[in-house]
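Please review this one:
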Amino acid sequence: MNSEYYSIELERDELNRHFGNGIPKNSMIVIEGFDGSGKSILCQRISYALLKKGKKVTYISTELNTLEFIKQTNSINYSMRNFFLNNQLLFLTVMPYLGKAKFNDNFLKKIMETKKIFENEIIVIDSLSFLLVKDNSTERELYDIINFFKKLNNINKTIIFTIDPEHLNDKFLTLLRNVSDLYINTKIEEFAGNTIRIIDIKRYKRPLEMYTSKIPFRVEPKEGLVVEIGGYA
């Protein structure tokens, strides 16, 4: 395996091959999609493979608390329990606890100032939304956020964002798309009378090998993400 890439191979699926046999290290990866399109499942699938290969991951969720995250990943056979126990996985939830905590305008800034969050080599934010990036942010504030994460790339950190275009400032969304090394859109389409999910790779700046630009998949209980390239083709 090329030392500048992470393998995300799992024996049960061929996702790694469709991504060109690896994803680039020190990159910014953006997974965009509407609610229910599968962006979080893809993010969890990638994180699980990286953890299985001994990498350390920080996973920040704005949608799940710790118990919900464990239950969800267990249900698709991406169990995170051992990674919690051996400190490979740092999971943080920024969900308001029972509705009592309130997000404020400086919430993302507080995250960015917490050095421990960014000690691991892979940092996942699922999802980056108006809860973290205020809708009335100035262009300067948005550029500062981008620059912060690009600087992390420069010190050998890989950043993965999931985003819902309905829940993020349009200017910031455009910036993220433009600076991303790997920009993926997850979507739901009708094909041959069936509803399928698609991983649509919009930009891949430095693939290791040939990759598949459109990867159909489904999500199965106890099995996780299943690639369906044959039926789609």
The CA atoms of residues 30 and 183 lie 5 Å apart. The first strand starts at residue 5 and ends at 6. Residues 97-101 have pLDDT under 50 and may be disordered.
